[in-house]
Design a protein that fits this description.
heterodimer; A: mainly alpha; 3 helices; 53% helix; B: alpha+beta; 2 domains; 4-stranded mixed beta sheet; 4 strands
């Protein structure tokens, strides 16, 4: 079984000296921008990951079940002589 | 003159012998294959399957299909009772019988190869399942 693991790639929010001077409102807006990029990164990261999935499809040919699967070899040998007699004794149906 | 008298007697004896032989053949025939079954086998309309039952080869009329069904019902009944007495499955007994029946086919008759295809028996050995004894 093959499983695909989605690994989101988050970009670290750049925080520098400029952040200090920003107002709380600006910070909040920047935060939402970072979250948006983060989500985009998650989606972008998922695309190549999905491409790497191995698709297992059902075979187009029918599945053949072996007819003689329940025939036991040792039993065949044991029955051989009796089967020969049966044929000889019932010639009208064989 | 003498030989002239002997000839009709010899002819009568010959005729009686022939009638006796015919009568014997007729009584033996009652227990052997039905003429319709023998003809269908010889014509390749029916064949021995790999599972111990008779098969209809190709498209055949209702009479042939009914005959095959009747024979197979009798075979199944026989396989069932034999399998029970020998502690085997019906399929195992039927399969073992099939091995023998395919081996006993005569040239011109049809039989089923291990892959399920119909083959016409030639002068050589038939294609049988490797599990056959």
């Amino acid at each position: 079984m093959i499983t695909c693991k989605l690994t989101p790639t988050f970009r670290p929010a750049r925080s520098g000296s400029r952040t200090r001077s920003k107002t709380l409102r600006q910070l909040d807006r920047e935060g939402s921008v970072v979250r948006t990029f983060g989500l985009a990164g998650l989606v972008l990261g998922a695309i190549p990951a999905l491409g790497g999935c191995v698709n297992v499809s059902a075979p187009d040919k029918p599945i053949v079940i072996e007819l003689n699967i329940n025939i036991r070899q040792e039993v065949i040998y044991r029955l051989a002589a009796d089967a020969a007699n049966t044929i000889e004794e019932n010639p009208e149906i064989f | 003159m003498r030989s002239f008298m002997v000839k009709p007697f010899a002819a009568t004896a010959l005729a009686l012998t022939a009638m006796g032989a015919l009568g014997f053949a007729a009584s033996a025939g009652a227990q052997s294959r039905d003429p319709a079954y023998s003809a269908a086998r010889a014509a390749g309309k029916v064949g021995e399957q790999r599972d111990g039952y008779l098969g209809v080869v190709g498209e055949q009329g209702n009479d042939i299909r009914a005959m095959v069904r009747d024979i197979n019902n009798k075979r199944r009944a026989l396989y069932t009772s034999k399998a029970a007495s020998l502690s085997s499955t019906i399929d195992e007994y039927a399969f073992t019988t099939a091995c023998r029946l395919i081996a006993e086919t005569v040239p011109g008759e049809k039989y089923q190869a291990p892959d399920g295809s119909w083959k016409t028996r030639g002068s050589g050995a038939p294609e049988r399942d490797p599990k056959c004894p």
